[in-house]
Specification:
The complex is a heterodimer. Chain A is an all-alpha fold. Chain A is 73% helix and 0% strand. The two termini of chain A are 19 Å apart. Chain B has a two-stranded antiparallel sheet with strand order 1-2. Chain B is globular, with a radius of gyration of 20 Å. The chains are: A mainly alpha, B mainly alpha.
Chain lengths: 376, 320
Amino acid sequence: MESPEKQYNKALGKGIKIFTKSSSLVPIVAIILGLITGALVMLAGGYNPLVAYGALFGKLIESPYDIGETIRAITPLIFTGLSVAFAFRTGLFNIGAEGQFVMGMLGATLIGVKLDLPWFIHAPLAMVGGAVLGGIWAGIVGYLKAKRGVNEVISSIMMNWIGLYFANYVIGTWLSEKGQQKSNEVHESASWSIGWLSEMMDHARMHGGTIVALICVFLFYILLWKTKQGYELRAVGLNPDAAHYAGMNVGRTVVKSMFIAGAFAGLGGAFEVLGVFGYQTISSASPGYGFDGIAVSLLGGNTPVGILLAAILFGGLTYGSGGMSFEADVPTEVVRIVIGAIIFFIASHGIVRMVMKPFSFRRNKPTDGSKEASRT
Amino acid sequence: MNVIEILGQLMNTTLVFSTALIFVALGGLLSERSGVVNIGLEGLMTAGAFAAAVGADYAARSGMGGLTAAWVGIVTAMIFATVFALLHALATITFKANQVVVGTVINFLALGFSLYLVKNLYDGAGETNSVEMFSKYAIPGLSDIPLIGEGLFTAYPTTYLCIVMIAIVWFVLFKTPFGLRLRAVGEHPGSADTVGISVTKYRYIGVLLSGVLAGLGGATITLTTTGTFSHNTISGQGFIALAAVIFGKWHPLGAAGAAIFFGFAISLRNFAQLFEFSQQIPEEFFYMLPYLLTLIVLAAAVGRSRAPGALGEPYDPSKR
């Protein structure tokens, strides 16, 4: 008899497959429906959605500073989006990018504050430190899944909280002055800020992490589609049993995939410290980039280009929400609702197909996606 | 403070924290027994905690007494959380969406909506007004027993309700035709359908009941522990409750037992400052404890339990 954990995992994993496939029309309709949902919510709350959306999108290009800061807001979402998507490709739901992000911040802060090295070693080392710590954090989840059959959804949520308190502890004990709620500043030599570019963008916080993010998008593609390892990762994601019979080590692949996914998230965290803030704060809640990463990965259909576009959309929405609350007095949470609604419609693509039906010439078979899912 | 008193208090706080977890775990159990994975428990709880604060606040403002207002809060919470559960059911049952993803979306939406409404109703504040909470009720006679008198028989009304609820869920699930059908639908929907049980109907009921109970659980936290709702009123308890369902082998008594165990872990941090030795341990580790224990418990052998057969699978009659 299969162990109960295995059965449960199988149950949870069912249907993840549909998200590795995407038709481009569904996401676009989902985005439109999501924005409409947001508008309805604003109308119900007594706000003017047109003014609000105007303020939101206006904010993005208001000044060079805002353009720069929008790019700044998009960057971590690319990393966490890649993280969630990479795990998805191996059939794993990495809901723990949040904790891996925090651990990435911690790794970068540790190396940035504690070591004193020439910049050409210090900056890359701090970056790698974040990636490794994020990778280990996710690797634990992968290990527990492979060896003990613990479902990765629950274990990575637990790791999120453990990571948050662990980071708070390390910062509070070793990295800060007494009574401070944030760590000491990382050394100048570890910084990834690009001074001249920030100068040009009215002191927006520009940093090299954005370029690394773009490289990672490319790397994501190469790793998954152009290497033997990537083939194995995807094979396990598509059908673990078949992969097992073909002689692949499913357990090791799971750990490997989680490690790489965690490293992506960790990089995102590292650049928040090394490029944006220069320090890490002690906080009661994690920053939320990991959860947004789930949204990015789902909207992007787990494809490299899709992730990039989705990160741009959600990063833009998030940054623009500041302008919306400032000019139209609408709570920024509307953007959470819009993002949530978009993913809701992507997941329930049956609803989207129903909405699209009157507009399409060819009749779509309404159940093909879901049939696919339930057969696996 | 002597040992008996400390133990009594530890028992008492354990019960306070467990109450909410048990409600939510029972809800999750009903949903999962009908074959629908419910990762959205956290969000349903958040919705409940929020609606309880608002319901109780508005009831108090309209002139109701503290206790009545609190019960109004409870009812509001159950209704509001059920709305989100309905959304979950619609997507996963009718539209056969991926249950894990929809659950995540519910968490996202419930928190977003709750915070949006808080700002909308309280002029941009990040927190609701404080509401009058339940007070503990001592059962006459029994509460005079040393240790367990303070530990078990001086509790919030919600705790007593919770004990009744465990019995109800157990009875309904295992002793009524309704419960049998609910389990059948989760175990083998094809067969259930063949004998004329509507899979869709019972799954809807299962998921909606998880909304009712998770809302009740969220309300319990607002009305016995925090007194207000803000962004971190619910921080992982929904997921801990889900772990309790698995750890408790999808059985009401098992889930309740597991929830009490996790409630104990949460309550430990309140006692960290009382002892010489525990003061040496950094506070953060006590915050970590419930999550760490959940992880360890899941990793250590869970025993021979079995998940409902059709858990996570949308039902498609054409493949019966």
